[in-house]
Amino acid sequence: MTVFQATTAAGETPPADAVAPRDSTADAPTSVARLNATIRDFVARWNTVWVEGEITSWNVRAGNVFARLKDVQSDAQISLRIWSSVRGRIPADLGVGDHVVAAVKADYFVKSGDFSFAVSTMKHVGLGDQLERLEKLRIQLRREGLFDAARKKRLPFLPHVIGLITGERSDAEKDVHRNAELRWPQVRFRTEYAAVQGDRCVPETLAALARLDADPEVDVIVIARGGGDPQTLLGFSDERLVRAVAAASTPVVSAIGHENDHPLLDDVADLRASTPTDAAKRIVPDVGEQRALIGQLRSRAMSRLTQRLSHDIAQLEQLRSRPVLRSPDHIVDARTQELWLLQSRGRDTLNRRLDEAHRRTGELRASLRALSPAATLARGYAIAHLDGGVILRDAADAPAGTALTITVDRGSVAAHSDGEVSEAD
Questions:
Q1: Mean pLDDT in each 10-residue stretch from start to end of the chain (425 residues)?
Q2: 100 - beta bridge partners?
């Protein structure tokens, strides 16, 4: 059927320059440009319609938005174009998962042959069912602590075996292998293939995760996919898969590669990588960088050791240059002279004090002798004692017949009083 026949069957009047059956034959075909122009002119006469659906793709390029709108009851989808002049009149928070109604007009591009709908206005109806369910699950898992950083396991510095879950012969697998082997050529992989979208995605990924987690040689598990439409990533937000990853004993890295609206797997995984390439770079150290680091550390250690030895040698030289170490006899000689002077001064001081003591002793001896009774007796005096050693001081105390003891310079004699008392001169 030609375009002309199709348009007339729809009850529309074809444009004057429309492609008619007589204008195109096997021997004289019409041009692509004329065919596209006919389609454009026909589509241009369609009226604006209001359509309801859920946004599944939202890409901004040069101020314009290129999106896709999915039917809320089926898998039917249409392409939307929102020009920059219209974008300022619609809500700024529109995005993937939003349930919206939009006024659209069919638009056919002659040059590329693309068919889409230009949006003149758009507004929220509410969150899409899928986004609403995911948000509720996200809130529940966060309350349970599955997103907490404290429960996440640290990745090993250099994994011996990397478990990889990805699609068979996928670009994600090639990216992970190529980048990991470039960084560390001896790295080993244990790959489990699983569907990365559709109904088989969750059960196959769960089975692959269980096998790798049970393998004692696997040090880290990477779940990789090369991004995609949010609709195709729903399997990686499945509650069964999310809880299985949280319960795994082996660290799990999520490398789904979707920045705009990441699945729940990214939140519960021990590490989220933006792409499979990023995952390979973050779980495997770069052998060149490590060698350079070791070289830097060795250089720093050698420099530090050399600096310390030089410092200690300089200190030793400084100590050796001091007079006490350069000529140790000098301090001994100086102290010897000082010791001799102190000894001589001490001897002189002691002699002076001894002479002074001898002189003082002589003076005291002379004073003692002058005051001593013996000196009086030596001059011819005597001391009379009554019985009991009492010195007789008064003649009246010695009546006649009293026994006396007379002490003289040399010895004592016994005597008796005659009772006569004579007055002293």
A1: 40 55 74 84 86 90 91 88 88 82 88 87 70 83 92 92 93 91 91 89 94 95 81 84 95 81 87 90 88 90 94 88 75 80 91 92 84 75 82 80 83 80 59
A2: 53, 124
* DSSP 3-state of 190: strand
Smallest CA-to-CA distance from 57 within 103, 110, 116 is with 116
Beta bridge partners of 271: 253
- Residue 32, CA atoms < 13 Å, CB-side half-sphere: 5
The helix/strand/coil state of 59 is: strand
126 Rama sector, left if φ>0, alpha if ψ -120 to 50, beta otherwise: left
Distance between CA atoms of residues 403 and 299, nearest Å? 120
What values do phi and psi take at 16, rounded to 5?
Answer: -65, -35
Do 385 and 404 form a contact (C-beta atoms < 8 A)? yes
pLDDT of residue 4: 42
DSSP 34: H
Structure tokens at 376: 């009086």
Domain positions in the chain are 3-128, 133-285, 375-416
The CA distance from 306 to 304, in Å, is 5
CA 311, CA 242: separation in Å to the nearest integer? Answer: 60
pLDDT of residue 339: 87
How far apart (Å, rounded) are the C-alpha atoms in residues 398 and 421? 9
Class of domain 3-128: mainly beta
Residue 48 · residue 104 · CB < 8 Å: yes
pLDDT of residue 6: 41
First to last CA, the chain: 192
Which helix (H) or strand (E) covers residue 115, if one does?
strand 115-127
> Is the CATH number of domain 133-285 3.40.50.720?
no
Q: Which two tokens stand for residue 146?
A: 């599955």
**Distance (Å, rounded) from C-alpha 394 to C-alpha 407?**
16
Whole-number pLDDT of residue 331: 73
d(CA 70, CA 413): 160
Report in angstroms the alpha-carbon separations of 253 from 115, 183, 210, 212.
40, 18, 15, 13
Pairing of strands 115-127, 77-82: parallel
The helix or strand, by DSSP H or E, that contains position 220, with its residue range, turns out to be strand 220-224
188-193 vs 161-166, strand pairing mode:
parallel
